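Example 5.3 — 2-dehydropantoate 2-reductase
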Amino acid sequence: MAAYALETGGKAEVTAVMRSNYEAVEKNGIEIDSIEHGHDIKEWRPTAIRKSIPNVKEENLQPFDFILVTTKNIPDLTPAVADIIEPAVTAGKTAIVLSQNGLNIEKPLIERFPTNPIISSISYIDVTETSHGRILHDHADAQKVGPFNNPGVSSEVAEEAARRYVAAYNATGKLDVVFDADVKFARWRKLVYNASYNSVASVLRMDTARMRMSQHVIDDLIRPIMLEVVAAARANGVQLPDDVPDKVIRADPTENAFKPSMCQDAEKGNFLEIETIVGEPLREGEAKGVLMPTLRTMYGLLKGIQLQIKESRGLWEAKFISDNPYQ
Ligand SMILES: NC(=O)C1=CN([C@@H]2O[C@H](COP(=O)(O)OP(=O)(O)OC[C@H]3O[C@@H](n4cnc5c(N)ncnc54)[C@H](OP(=O)(O)O)[C@@H]3O)[C@@H](O)[C@H]2O)C=CC1
Ligand SMILES: CC(C)(CO)C(=O)C(=O)O
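Solution (predicted structure tokens):
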């Protein structure tokens, strides 16, 4: 959806890097059913489609102005985001936009690319790739875009890059995609949803409407996690208002059965974004003395699921390692 918005705005040319969907898109283009851009978009293609990350130096390419990262962010697996994008980054030039959920995702990027603007996009957009190259977009694209603090880049340069990205993305001015300098607030606010709904949905394989209809899932799991995240945010200097949990609980429409992105991954047998969405807020909160028992339990369950996925893909072997006290 980002490629579509950027290209159709007329201020950007997008090179889209695809993986499992490459062949399907190369052959048939992209089919989009979008609440905002139209329900019957067929055979759409961005300026370029690639099967691998462009290598700017080896291929003698012009530097990219922006790299928009829309992969899942799973630091407990390799390759890490910084390794994936490195060949396309031009030091001191390319701005890197992380349109990914979670906390502290900028840290490895700042370490690897100390002279590049690193930009945060917090996105509210329910998008599902229903099959390769087929996109269902059923919530208005709303984003808060702002610069992460990269000590090697001046705040003026970083802000200018973020504003330029917003201007290209929202060229028509019709989308709710806006500049917002308070990246820390936007990220913690979004985590109230993701740490709770994404993780509970992944364990229960349940959509958010059914959770609300059940009542107990909200009372016993969702609301307690939200309150723990709000307490962790406040302990870290982010004053989320008292009404955030109630607003976020009711954020999704109840007439369709929406499953958050992590649940979609669990159902596909894909790896889960556990560390950035659950592990990091847990560590940040507990480091400040906040008790987070519900989120800690979810973390343990999700790590168990991740281990099963790793084993099924041959990335974990069921054996004791030397310092394991339970053998
Ligand atoms: N879906 C949503 O509505 C929302 C998602 N988010 C966040 O946005 C981010 C992206 O989520 P989402 O769009 O759902 O993710 P998806 O898993 O649907 O899409 C990720 C894409 O990245 C590709 N990819 C992953 N690694 C590589 C690689 N090394 N090289 C090339 N391509 C790669 C995947 O390919 P392949 O299919 O081969 O794995 C897949 O096409 C996440 O951080 C998520 O939390 C935020 C708001 C809403
Ligand atoms: C809820 C949503 C779709 C944002 O709108 C999201 O962040 C996710 O599914 O991970």
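Remark. The domain at 2-181 is CATH 3.40.50.720 (Rossmann fold).
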